[in-house]
Each structure stands twice: as C-alpha cells, then as structure tokens.
Write a structure and sequence with these properties.
CATH superfamily of the largest domain: Topoisomerase I, domain 2
Structural class: alpha+beta
Number of domains: 5
CATH class of the largest domain: Mainly Alpha
Radius of gyration: 30 Å
CATH topology of the largest domain: Topoisomerase I, domain 2
Number of strands: 29
Helix content: 25-40%
Shape: globular
Length: 697
C-alpha cells in the first residue's frame, strides 16, 4: 500500500515521476494553480497590508476532491511543483488546502526529471520557502493593482476591453519607440567600391579603404569619381599581408531567453511554441525500453551554471567522440550574463549527453526532436575547445588608392564541429578564403563595381530581438517573456508583419495615455528596479508588503489625477470603399492580432469579415488570369493564393516571383536558408540568390 502522496502540476510529469518512485507513492497532478485572485474583482485589501483574497479556481473542484481523498489515505504529503517562484506558490496553496503543517519538510524540488535526480530530491525534502512565495505574491498583486486599476479607467475613457500591464506596456512602448525611430529616420547616401582581382587561377574581392593615406568616406558619386581617377588603370600591388591566429569561443548553455531567440532564428519557432515543446521535453518522453525520461533540465532559468556531474559526463563524451584536442584544458565556467540573474537553477541542458539526438529521434515528434537537438548541440559545444581561425588581411595599392581584402580559414574546428550560433538574420560565419599572395605581387582587376547605398533605419523587433531587449533591460523574468508577447498581440496593441512587430493605432493611443498619466509604469529603469525589488523579496532581503506600499503610494495619486484629467476619446473606425456583400453596408478597418482586417459596420447585426489581401504583382501561374495575393491562415501564417479563388485553387506557402524559371519555364518562389533568401524553381534544380537590404543592427 502507498504511504506517501506526491503532487505535481501536470499529468505528464506525474506519469514520469510515478515510474521512478514505485508503489509506495501515489503521484497526482494539480493541473497548475488551484487558487488565485478572483477575476470579477480586484481581490486585494489594499488597506489591510495588501492582503490577497484567494479563491478556488473554477473547474478545480473535482481535482481538489481527488487530492483531498488521496491525502487522507497516506501518512505523508510531498509537494513537487516546478523549482521556481510559481512552483513554490502552487505548493504553498496546496499545503494550505490539504492542511499540511507549515513546519513540515514537504517540499521537493529537482532541476531535471531523471530517476537519480528525483530519488535524490526525495531524500532531502525541505520546508516551503516563504520568501519565494512572497515574491510570487508580490508580483501577482502588483500586476493585479496595475491591471485592475488602470484598465477600468481605459474602458471608461477610451474603449471597453482594453488593459494595461506592467511588462506588456513596456514591451509595447519599445515597439512603438522603434517604429517612431524608423519613421523619423533620414537615410544618408554612401558608396562602396569593390574590385575583383585575379591571382593565378583564383580571384578574390577587395574593397576600397583609403586614398592618399587618408580614410575618406564616400558620400557621393563625385567622391567615387575622385577615387576612380586616382586609381586610373594602375595594376594592383600587394603592399602588406598580415596573418594572425584568432580564437572563437563557444556560446554558453541556453537560458530561457537565449533558447527562445535561437529557436526563433534556427527553427522559426514562436516564443510560446518554444516553451511548450521545452515543457514536454522536461516533463518526460517515453523512450521505449528505457521508460519515460525527462530529456532536458528545467527550462525557466536565467543561469548558465552547469553541475560538475554533467560537466564530467560531457568531458567523457567529447573526448571519446572527437578526441582530447576538442576538450579545453580546464572545464568551462560561464559567468552570469545579467547582474540580476537569479542563478537558482542550472542552464538548460540535456539530462544526459549520452542521449544523442539521433538515438531518441524515433520517440520524438518533429518539433520535439528539433528543439532537443538544438539544446543538445548547444550544451555539448559549450563544453568544447575554442575554434581556431587563421585570418589574413591584405592591403593593395592602385595609384593613390588603397584597397583591403580580408579572409579567414578554419585551422581547428573545436566547438564549431557541433554547433555555431546564428546571427539575427539566421546566418552563420563561413570561411572566406584568399589565394596565396606575396608582398609585391602585381594583380590585374577583372572587374570593378561602385555601388550606391543608403543607411538603413534600425530594424523592427522580431520576437527574438524583443526578448533580448527585455532581458538586457532587466524587464520581466524568464517565465514572463512568452506570455507577454502573446498578450500584446491578443489585445490588438501590436500586429505581426513579416515576423516583425508593428504597433497598431490602438496600441499607440494606449501608450500615449500611459505616458501622460502613468509614466513610471513605462519607465524602463523603474520597471527594472521593481524586478530587482522582487528579487530582494525572494532572497529575504526585503519585505513584500513594504515593496507594494512604496509603489502604491505614488500610484494611487496618479490614478486620482488620471480619473479627473484624462479626457474621453472616441475611436472611430476607418471606413473602406468596399461594400458588405451580405447586408450592403460599408466595411470598416479593424485591428486583430495579425494586423488589419475588414469587418461590416453593421456589427453586431452583421458579422461579416474579410481579410485585407495584398497584391504582390505576380500573375497566377495556374489560371493565367488572376493576381497572386498575400493572405493569412486562421493561425496567422502568411500564404499566397489566386485572387479568383474559389474559381482558381492555386496556393503556395512560398512567395511566387514575377518571372519564369530560365531553365524550364516553371514557377519560381522565394525560400529562406541560412544565408538569406534564394530564388528557387518548383520543378527543376535552378537556384539563385536574392539581394536583400540588410536591416540588421
């Protein structure tokens, strides 16, 4: 008979842990939180030390009865929710409901769900950490005060259904500020001159550097002409060759934010999808004969620390697989990237490096495999030797001008044999080789190409860029990034255009009002300071009631002022020229989470809606009559189809190109690979690169 009850959050986690603990343990799932603040009211007694009024979450009755009944049949209860503030709060609420003594060592935590880790954790249970609970309560109450005090004001003055949150408001303001930067950007002209030089049977590219010993920027065509005149028809002479060895170090193991960023770049995952799949890998996968095993460590972390046991296992694997040269002289230790990092957990890593991705592929879904491989590759690479590159810089003179060519060659792959971190555009560093050259060599130019350029505005935020910005500014915590990005889209404050955030008119209006009446909520330093205060509460250095009281004292005055001074604003829908085919009224522009769409002005009597389609200037390859337009699926994914649908059923996920394949005459489409966008034929093997303006900073 079982003598202990173990409660975790999810059935998947319960299933995995249950197999490890055996018949003496009953393992049940609470399905997350069991109590929370009520939705219908603020639920916080501000005048009574911010006392929260928790209620049982609707729909949890059956689960709670099951847990209560199970608790009466055992001698001991263990609470094994996730090892973070949220998990501690879940355990605390469960302890309250099940009448567990607050002094009892009932809390069990583990960073990975493996047999050894789970069994070891049950040998050393501890009391519930009230500081962690208070930090979670303080955040929850703080967000409730902001949301439930400002939102009704926005409903009254602007529009029903609006909301304002601490972290989400800062995120929207960052997106809006970036859009303002882009709109205010004044492009500047500049030129470059590239020359293709012949060296024996090889050729290489050199770029203009300076003239008459001075580095002169080329801001006009006249400046280019001066360089061309100074160069004349002179041969290019190798003036100086510099060669040196350069080391490149691996990136640290993933933390939550870097995992979300790299999954976006390499796998095209949204932040929410990354966290959902990571949760599955953490909670456990059935590996056949091996049973159910958690494949990665806890994925909500801001620490890059790695346990000595995991490091030793990685060392043995790397030396055995690649050789001693691929392991550094001493194990790698990564310092905290952010001064505010909690360092409570390890970095994200495979629970065993011996479970190489290909070994478990048959047991994983496509998305699970891709994310697991990403985590495994990054961790293994993080423990390996540095890569060594031979770099070469060649200065060449032609008349009074100096041109420079740079090249690099991999001397020793090191960690790059396993993994290379992507840039923001998804590309990775590749070899750029120069032919053997000697000082004094005379080279002839094969071609020379002056190019006009214009400086580019800063890029819009992608999910990866926004997560990085929030992390660097100390806004939010690992668990908040994905839900924050989801919320600002659901509220209609931002839209997605080609995977980049753009603010909506509604979002701009809300931020303007917040800036005028609640500037501290949008102030990055203030918000980061609040995160720091919550960290101090978690560490037992600060009283949570005092933190809330300090915030609320000034916040309450702001509310009173806004109530009196904020003017009512009526948002008028923009009327389109299109007529509703169902009722004859005009269609108006509305904003949804995926951007603008058309809706009938007769709503709610008429609920007709239509997507706004964008003509991409390509004739339909199927019917030869219609135009290809850009559309969105119900899940927001962009696709391309004929505007004569349903008469013509042409559809493509890839963007068609307005020219036929030069080899077979079939349709050409744009496809993205690690080097950017390529033009590819749908029938034959024809491919060519597409030139794109570089908007990455």
């Amino acid at each position: 008979m079982a003598d202990s009850l173990v409660i975790v959050e999810s059935p998947a986690k319960a299933k995995t842990i249950g197999k490890y603990l055996g018949s003496k343990f009953i393992v049940k799932a609470s399905m997350g939180h069991i109590r929370d603040l009520p939705k219908s009211q603020i639920g916080v007694e501000v005048d009574n030390n911010f006392e929260p009024k928790y209620i049982t979450i609707r729909g949890k009755g059956t689960i709670l009865k099951e847990l209560k009944d199970a608790s009466k049949k055992v001698k001991r209860i263990y609470l094994a929710a996730d090892p973070d503030r949220e998990g501690e709060a879940i355990a605390w609420h469960l302890a309250h409901y099940l009448d567990v003594d607050s002094d009892e060592a009932c809390r069990v935590v583990f960073n990975e769900i493996t047999k050894d880790a789970v069994k070891d954790a049950f040998k050393t249970p501890r009391k519930i950490n009230q500081d962690l609970v208070n930090a979670q309560q303080a955040r929850r109450i703080l967000d409730r005060l902001v949301g439930y005090k400002i939102s009704p004001l926005l409903w009254k003055k602007v529009k029903k259904g609006l909301s304002a949150g601490r972290v989400q408001s800062v995120a929207v303001k960052l997106i809006m500020d970036r859009e303002n930067e882009i709109n205010a950007f004044d492009p500047e002209e500049y030129w470059s001159i590239s020359v293709l030089l012949a060296a024996g049977k090889s050729s290489f590219e050199a770029k203009y550097h300076s003239m008459k010993g001075e580095k002169r920027e080329l801001h006009s065509e006249d400046a280019v002409k001066q360089v061309m005149d100074a160069m004349g028809n002179a041969d290019f002479i190798v003036q100086e060759i510099k060669e040196k060895e350069r080391q490149r170090n691996p990136s640290p193991p993933f933390i939550t934010s870097s995992l979300q960023q790299e999954a976006a770049r390499k796998l095209n995952f949204r932040a929410s999808k990354t966290m959902s799949v990571a949760q599955q890998l953490y909670e456990g996968i059935d590996l056949g004969k091996e049973g159910t095993v958690g494949l990665i460590t806890y994925m909500r972390t801001d620490s890059t620390r790695i346990s000595p046991i995991a490091q030793e296992e990685a060392k043995e694997y790397i030396i055995g697989k690649f050789g001693a040269a691929f392991y550094p002289e001493t194990p790698r230790v990564y310092t905290k990237k952010n001064a505010n990092a909690q360092d409570a957990h390890e970095g994200i890593r495979p629970t065993s490096v011996l479970r190489a991705p290909e070994m478990v592929k048959e047991f994983l879904s496509k998305d699970q495999f891709r994310l697991y491989k990403l985590v495994w590759d990054r961790f293994v690479a993080s423990q390996m030797s540095s890569a060594v590159l031979d770099t070469m810089t060649v200065d060449l003179t032609a008349g009074d001008t100096l041109f420079r060519a740079n090249g690099s060659k991999m001397k020793f792959q090191g960690f790059m044999k396993v993994y290379v971190e992507s840039n923001d555009d998804g590309t990775t560093e590749e070899d750029k080789l120069l032919p053997p050259l000697t000082q004094g060599d005379k080279l002839k130019k094969e071609s020379i190409e002056p190019k006009q350029h214009f400086t580019q505005p800063p890029p819009r935020y992608t999910e990866a860029r926004l997560v990085r910005a929030l992390e660097e500014m100390g806004i939010g915590r690992p668990s908040t990034y994905a839900p924050t990005l989801e919320t600002i889209q659901k509220r209609g404050y931002v839209a997605i255009d080609e995977k980049k955030f753009i603010p909506t008119e509604l979002g701009e209006l809300v931020i303007q009002l917040m800036t005028e009446f609640f500037p501290e909520i949008l102030d990055v330093e203030f918000t980061a300071h609040m995160e720091e205060e919550l960290d101090f509460v978690e560490e037992g250095k600060e009283d949570w009631v005092k933190v809330l009281d300090t915030f609320y004292t000034s916040f309450e005055k702001r509310l009173e002022f806004a109530e009196e001074e904020m003017k009512e604003i009526e948002i008028q829908d923009e009327v389109s020229d299109e007529i509703c085919e169902k009722c004859g009224k005009h269609l108006v522009y509305k904003m949804g989470r995926f951007g603008k769409f058309l809706a009938c002005s007769g709503f709610p009597d008429c609920r007709n809606t239509k997507p706004i389609v964008k003509d991409i200037g390509v004739t339909c390859p199927t019917c030869k009559e219609g135009k290809i337009v850009e559309r969105r699926s119900k899940k927001g994914r962009i696709f391309f189809g004929c505007d004569r649908y349903p008469a013509c059923d042409f559809v493509s996920w890839d963007k068609p190109v307005d020219k036929p394949c030069p080899e077979c005459g079939s349709l050409l489409v744009e496809k993205r690979n690690k080097n950017g966008i390529i033009i590819q034929c749908v029938q034959c093997d024809f491919k060519e690169e597409k030139e794109e303006p570089n908007d990455e900073n």
